[in-house]
Amino acid sequence: MVRRLLIAASPGLFASLAQQFSALGGHDLRTLAEAGASPAEADAAVLDGAFCDAPTLARALRDAGFAGPIVIIGDAAPDADAALARPFRFADLLAALAPAPLETPDRGARLTEKEAAILDRLIRARGAIVTKAELLADVWGYGPSVSTRTLETHIHRLRKKVETDPRRPQKLLTEDGGYRIEKWKAANLPP
Hints:
Layout: E1 3-8, H1 11-24, E2 27-31, H2 32-35, E3 44-48, H3 54-63, E4 70-73, E5 82-84, H4 90-97, H5 113-124, E6 130-131, H6 132-140, H7 150-162, E7 172-175, E8 178-181, H8 184-188
């Protein structure tokens, strides 16, 4: 499943984000001009306050029916879900683009690049199980013959950040040789 992102940023920042999201796979980045009359069809938006009037644009997106997360690079705005100060880490952007059920109970917890990539891959699965082999291939680039416990270690650390009680996971579940995000479909997907 491809996650559609609307990006309003300078050409340099857009190119940098395009490169990062391309490495993750499963993302379709569009500029405002490319989105045209249908920005509400995007799953999330990133607005660069140094490039555009981000608060006004966030308000316009909400007025047009945009329901996905809006992240502003710069100062916070009422219609945005998150704001990131420069310089920002790509992992923090991915975490900010994650829907509400994946917000960390400890607001001070920061996701590593790999933790953010794992969450992003599970988010794109929209509640379906993602096998361990798929995660190892998508996040680390490992082939099927690699034997490692790194995924389990990262999931353990990630649960400490996203779960209220990591010993009884309610959001990031282990099932049938893989992982999935619980209650994703009903509560957090655009139609």
